[in-house]
Each structure stands twice: as C-alpha cells, then as structure tokens.
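Exercise 7.
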Amino acid sequence: MKLIFKIAKNELRNLFYSPVAWFLSITFLVLCAVFYTSGIGPWAKSQDVSVMNDPNFKGYGVSLTESIFVNGEGVFNIVLQNLFLFIPLLTMGLISREINNGTIKLLYSSPVKTRTIIFGKYVAVMIYNMILLSMLGIFIVAGLFDIQSADYGLLLSAALGFYLLVCAYTAIGLFMSSLTTYQIVSAIGSFMLIFILTRIGVLWQKYDFVRDLTYFLSISGRTHKMLKGLITSNDVIYFLLIVYIFLGFTWIRLQGAREVRPWFVKAGRYMAVMITALLIGYATSRPGVIGYWDTTAGKTNTLHENTQKIITELGDEPLEVTLYTNLLGVGEYSGFPQSRNNYLWALWEPYLRFKHNIKFNYEYYYDVADEDSTIFRRFPGKSLKEIAALVAYASDVNISMFKTPPEMRKIIDLKPEAYRLVMQLKYKGRTTFLRIFTDNDFWPDESQVGAAFKRLTQPKMPVIMYVTGNLERNIHKKGEREYSFHSLDKEQRRSLINQGFDLDTVALDYQDIPTDISTLVLADPKTMLSATAISKLQEYINKGGNMLILGEPGKQQMLNPLLQQIGIQLMPGILVELSKHETPEKIIPYITLSGADLAPDDYLLNLKKSKGQDSLRVGFPGAIPIHIIDSSKFKMATLMTTVPGKSWLKAGRLVTDSVAPIFSPQEGDTRENSFPVMLGLTRKVNNREQRIVVCGDADFLSNYRGGGAFMSMAFFSWMNYNQFPNYTPKPKPADDRFSTTYARANMMRIIFVWILPAILLILGTTILIRRKRQ
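Solution. The predicted structure, written as tokens, is:
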C-alpha cells in the first residue's frame, strides 16, 4: 500500500509539473463557472422583477436545483457531455511516458509488482479527479446558498455520477496509454473507445443475446438516473466493472511484457476478465437484486405512494405482461426487438422496483381490420402478405417472426384494440389491456398502469352510466358534440376507460337504472323526458345515487322538471361575456376553491396552494347560470362561476355573428356580480354521502372541446369518492425560489468566471516556471 501511494505521489508530481493538468483544470473551472452563472443570472433577474411587481411572489413552482444543475444547459449536464474531451488528454502519458523515458524497465527490474504500478498511477488520477470534483463542489456550495432550500440530495447524487464516470474514463485512458508509445495515438484511441462504448448500446439490438450484451456494455445514459437524484446499485456496479475491466486489461498488457507466455494464455486472461465482469453485471442487474436510493427531497424518482399501495395488493403472485406488436399498426417500432430495452427500462423499471416477479412475453403479427382498405391503396395490387414483407424489409425486421392474421386471431382478438401496439396484463387468470398513446409521452403513465393493476385485483370497477333515449350526447360517436373523447376513446390518455372506469348506457323508457353504478350522467337531452324516465331518475336520486347533469341554453325546460326536485333550476336565457377575440356566447368561468377540492389533480392542487392569488379558467362555449330555489335539501357549493362584473344573462335572442350585444334591462337582461355555472350538491343518504354535479354547459365535455380535459376527470373522481383515477400528485418543490439577487449573481459571475481561473492560472504558471528553473 505504501508503494502504491509513493507511485501515486510521484505521478501527481509529474501531472502538475506539466501544463496539461493545469490547462485542463482551468478550462474545467471556466466551463463550470460559465454555465452556473449564465443559468442563475436570468432566473435571479426574473425573480427580482417578479418580486417588484408582486410582493406576494411565491416562487417559480419548479425545482431550481434541477434547472440550474441538471436540466438542459445545467452545470452537471454540460460537464458530463464534454468530459470525454478532458480525460484522454490527461491519461495519454500515464504509461507511454514511462516507456518513452525508459523508466518502465527500471520498474520492471524492481521488486514492484505490476498491479502496484497500475494502482499507483490510477490512484494518482483518482486524486486529480477529486480535484475536478472539488471544483464542481464550489458551485454546489454556491447553489446551496443561492437557491432557497436547495435539493442537496440531488446534487450529491449528481456529484457521485460525475465522479464514477470520470473514473471510468480514466481507466479507459490508462489502458490505451499502455498500448502505444505515442501519446497522441493514446488520446485518439481513448476518444474512439469512449465513443464506441457510448454508441454500442444501439448496435445489433434486434438479436436477443447481443442486445443484452451491448446494452450492458453501453456507457451512454448510465449517469442519467444519478443526475435526477436516483442512485441504483446496477449503475454503480457498472462503473466499478468498467474500471475493473480496463485496469485488468492494463495489467495483462504490462504483465505480458514482463513474461513470455503463449498468445492463447494472454487471450484467455482477457476473456477471463471480460466474462467475470459480464457475469457480475448480469447477476447484479436482475429485477429484485437492484437496489434503489432516491436522494431527492420530494422522492420524484419513486412511484407515488398510491401506486405503491396498488402494487402491494398484487401480492407475491406473478404478473404476466404480453406486448402485442402489429407490423402494420400504430406504434409498431416501439414494439420491435431493437426497442425492447427502452420498453423494459423506460416503462417497467419503476414497477419492477416494487414487484420483481413480472414476466414479459412478446407476440409479433401483421393484420388490418377487415373493412380497412387504407394500406391496400398505398400498395396497389399487393396482397396483405406481400405488403407485410415489404414493410418488414423497410423496417429491418425478419418477416418470419410475424404471425399471419389467421394464426393471430386464433390466439387473441385484437380488433377492439384497433390492432395497435398494446400490452395485455394477466394475473390470477384475469386479463386487461394497457394501451399506448400517440402523444409525446407515448407509454402509459402511473395513472393508467395503476388503473390496469386495479382491474386485475378488484372484483368490480366503478361504472359510469350515460342516459340515452332523448338525443343526449353519445359516448359511442366521434362527432363534434358527442362524448366519446373523454369516455370510451381508447386512444386518449385521459379517457375514463383508461383510468379504471367501466362505461355503459341506459335507455330509461325501457331499462331500469342499475343499483351498483358509480355515477349516472344525463347530458343535454334534446327532447322532453318521459314521465317514466323522470320517475326513475327521481327514484335514483332519492336513494342517494351520484349524478352528473349537464344542460344547454335553449333547452332548460328539458331538465328543470328534474332539477326543481333537488332545489335548483337552469335560468332562462344565455350568458354573455364580451371578448376581443371570441363571440359573446363563449364565456370563460373560473374554478372556485370549492371546485379545487374536487380531486388531487395537479392543476387544482396548484390553485388551492395559491389561496385565491391565482385563477384557473375553463372555456364554456354557451352556458346558462344555475339558480338555487331551495337550499334545504342539499348542501350546495359553487364549483365554477363567471368572472365578477364581466357577464350578464341575455333574456332574448342572442345574435352572435353581428355587432357586439348591449346589455338591455328593457328586454329582460339581468346582471349580477357573478353567475354560478357549475354546482356541487351533497347530502347524507343511508350513511353515505350523495354527490351530484350540475353544469350549465354540456359542450365543454364534447369531443370538439377536448372532453373537458382535467376538469372532467376531477368531477368524475369526486363522484367516485376519489378512488379513481389513480392520481399521483408530486409535492411542490421547496427549491423554487432564489436566495440571491441579480446584482449578487453578477458579482458571483465576475468571481467565478474571471477571478478564480486567474488565481489558478497564476498558481500553475508559478509552479511550472519554478520547476523549469530547477
């Protein structure tokens, strides 16, 4: 051990007696300083302006630690992207310098073992790497002072990732330095080897064995989790194995120069080092073996506790996941073998962390719906088999791995899933589908995965029943006014069917309302409800059933006979709100704090946290206010209301394609400070809280309006007592505000970018000059 440190001390002396180490140190310091100060300056300036305009400024609502250090042009992100430029220049002379100077022969003739030489030189560079880390530490400490409640756990995790990566690069550079006497060749070789290890993870991914091998060897993305604050045992072990591999290779190379051995003995040693590393890497990267440590303050890299509870309900029974990939379907590339590692690690790793016994199967096929002629028009004169062969060739996959339509239809009917890329989950003999979505995220998130898990464990899912028979909005149609988007559309991430709800319709003139449903929806009937229908609805309400009722201007009479029984009615007329950009019937009411209590949706939670300092509005393309006539039957809360002083109730006919309307009391127009357009009604019935939502607009839930976005999910969740959807709100980051000012940030820029590098330059120049004089 003493010899190792003596060699390390001598190597450090050589490093700092050469201009290379000083040049790299100064460049590294300037790089860190520029990106830290250029990141913090604009944020601090923006905060100063915000505080001047609003003394109640609460912060940015995002993690500034992430923004300054790891996102985009964050300090760690930029440093790690450019680290490969530094280390080869540092390590290029570690061994080759000894060979060129002839000192390697002295080392060989001494009683010093080869491994001692290697460890001594490697320890020296590890110490230099610590110096680089300490330079980064300057900005970490500065961040702790400049950012209010900075997430130090994330910073320490990112620092660990940096140090492991730089040590891995060092081991690579040390090995390349042992292969040649030319330092430039050694540096270029290190660049090339790092590049190969960075890109090897995308090579030969369609072959099973090679895919796992190259994916393990790839160094690309290995620090990504650590930059986000998640330390995993397999990533740490990977870097240790890279160091082991290249230090082992270096020992074999140098030891081979000291002894005469057959070539196959040397080759066997290389193979032994590689095979042991691969075996250890494989054994330590299996689900159930990997350890996780989420160092972030808000545990942002860990599944929400709601999702964890759902996974706990699965118990120890195995879960089987089959990915069905249609060569001619939507999302097919993400299901191909070359995308499998991304599928497993990007989508499923967070769940494998808590449930290890998930078995993954893969089925490949080609098929189209019988009535779909689109693909045949693209390939005129070709059969489906010929088309599949052409597409497979273009996609660089083997057509033989894909089942034909008859073969696949014998196994499973995927027509209801439109032959898209889809996953089928199987647990204790029960199955459900988990879908992909054609948005930026593509894969399902915690909400959809949690809902799918619930379908496997719960005996019955909540049922939302839509009333039909009087030209109500239809959940099976995709027209502009219809309701498929938020309900049954399997391609929509937020649709109720993908959030764990079952949906159905009921014609009240011929059918009874089931007693076990979660919510009944009556949406904009165009014709008068029959006495039978009203009787059944009243009976349902009297028994404590939850209900959503939506009306439209001009059709108040269709719903008022029912609404009057619960103490409210839709007022005659239509609300008018003048706007520079929209026609007057389009109003934009805001969500009240009572409305923000509906569900733990991120938008609503942020509204609650603002405590009235902010607002959240939803567009209503034609609405009517709701009037309370008897408040004794229900406890009533206004969920959405018009902006005070902005609207009035137009009594007569509203012309929307002419000049702006004028408030006219003579014609019966009425003006109030604010008109409620959505009410929440509650009362106790049979020891259970009954919940009813009444809305003066039905269009905002329509397909044309995006299905009501987050608001529709919120009141359906509320009427289901917030059991579904599986909301996973993340805590508001505490580090969303700076402790510094723009003036101080400018001063720090001068210190970090100019003064500190200048001091380092003077120190390095002084040492080098004194060394030269000696």
